[in-house]
């Protein structure tokens, strides 16, 4: 880490604000290219080294994929660290909010493919992202999609059955049901649920489940998918918060009715194989990539 950075990078404007810091657009004077500079705190509110910051840096340094945003440099500044990242002018969130130009079928397929390839890469590296959502999927000018924001990323050890993770992760609308029911022993399947929700949102133009609280979020999932059945998800009654609240019995909504504009059954089939209660029954990223939708 060198402290030449402030003279090498010319700050332009603030372009974003995440959970863990501000993002600015800047010019890399050495390469004459725009970059994004994310300012992150080195210490948390208790004065300890911020684990989220360390995880984000470590993940970005580990990952070399065309579907993961790349880190160019790191330098210390007055408040903590500045991460210099490749500049991406848009997010999938911004694209979805553009009502004038809704996404075309080709764009949806292309973005879903790139998102799944990025997730497959992470899962093969043993990394759970834990915050897949449209705002964390960045788009270049030529519409390449890359996964960003690794403040919640964690290494996953499938052989360590006692490993516990925080249930306070991922943005509520994209949070898997096992986490909503308080599970601390979850795996990469939480990213697949989120990916299914993002794909569904691209197809529908509006989020699949947009609860204002965790309980409302679960109620929306149950109303949509129907009440979970023990024969389909035997472990459900082992989840810490499963018995804490009773929801009315629901039969669920037929997928076709949730996607009235979808003429292709393969799109709905892919959603229905990702947005599944039992994490063991969700497609993995590799399985999703070989789905008929992409053939």
UniProtKB/TrEMBL annotation:
Gene3D superfamilies: Phosphorylase Kinase, domain 1, Transferase(Phosphotransferase) domain 1
Pfam families noted in UniProt: Pkinase
Keyword Ribonucleoprotein attributed: no
Ligase among keywords: no
Highest taxon of the lineage: Eukaryota
Subcellular localization(s) per the UniProt record: Cell projection, Cilium; Cytoplasm; Nucleus
Catalytic activity: L-seryl-[protein] + ATP = O-phospho-L-seryl-[protein] + ADP + H(+); L-threonyl-[protein] + ATP = O-phospho-L-threonyl-[protein] + ADP + H(+)
Protein name listed in UniProt: Cyclin-dependent kinase 20
């Amino acid at each position: 880490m060198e402290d030449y950075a402030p003279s090498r990078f010319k700050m332009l404007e603030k372009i974003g604000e995440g959970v863990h810091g501000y993002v600015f657009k800047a010019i890399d004077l050495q390469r004459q290219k725009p970059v994004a500079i994310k300012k992150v705190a080195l210490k948390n509110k208790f004065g300890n080294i911020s684990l989220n910051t360390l995880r984000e840096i470590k993940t970005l340094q580990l990952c070399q994929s065309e579907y993961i945003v790349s880190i160019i440099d790191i330098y210390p500044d007055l408040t903590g660290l500045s991460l210099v990242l490749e500049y991406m002018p848009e997010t999938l969130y911004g694209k979805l909010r553009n009502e004038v130009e809704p996404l075309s079928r080709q764009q949806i397929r292309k973005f879903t493919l790139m998102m799944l390839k990025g997730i497959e890469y992470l899962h093969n590296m043993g990394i759970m992202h834990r915050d897949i959502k449209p705002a964390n999927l960045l788009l270049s000018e030529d519409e390449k999609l890359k996964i960003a924001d690794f403040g919640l990323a964690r290494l996953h050890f499938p052989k360590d059955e006692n490993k516990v993770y925080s249930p306070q992760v991922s943005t509520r609308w994209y949070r898997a049901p096992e986490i909503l029911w308080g599970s601390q022993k979850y795996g990469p399947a939480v990213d697949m649920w989120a990916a299914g929700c993002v794909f569904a949102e691209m197809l529908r133009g509006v989020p699949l489940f947009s609860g204002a609280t965790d309980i409302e979020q679960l109620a929306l999932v149950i109303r949509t998918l129907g009440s979970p059945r023990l024969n389909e998800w035997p472990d459900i009654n082992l989840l810490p918060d499963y018995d804490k609240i009773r929801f009315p019995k629901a039969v669920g909504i037929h997928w076709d009715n949730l996607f009235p504009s979808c003429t292709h059954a393969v799109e709905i089939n892919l959603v229905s194989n990702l947005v599944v209660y039992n994490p063991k029954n969700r497609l993995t990223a590799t399985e999703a990539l070989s789905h008929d939708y992409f053939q």
